[in-house]
Amino acid sequence: MTGTNDDDRPAVDRVRRALLASGLPDTVATFDDDVPTAVAAAEVLGCEVGAIANSLVFELDGAPLLILASGAARVDTKLVARQLGSGKIKRATPEFVLEHTGQRVGGVAPVGHPERLRTLIDVHLSEYPLLWAGAGDHQSMLSISYADLARVTGAEPLEVR
Question: E strand or H helix at 53, and its extent?
Answer without folding.
Answer: strand 52-60
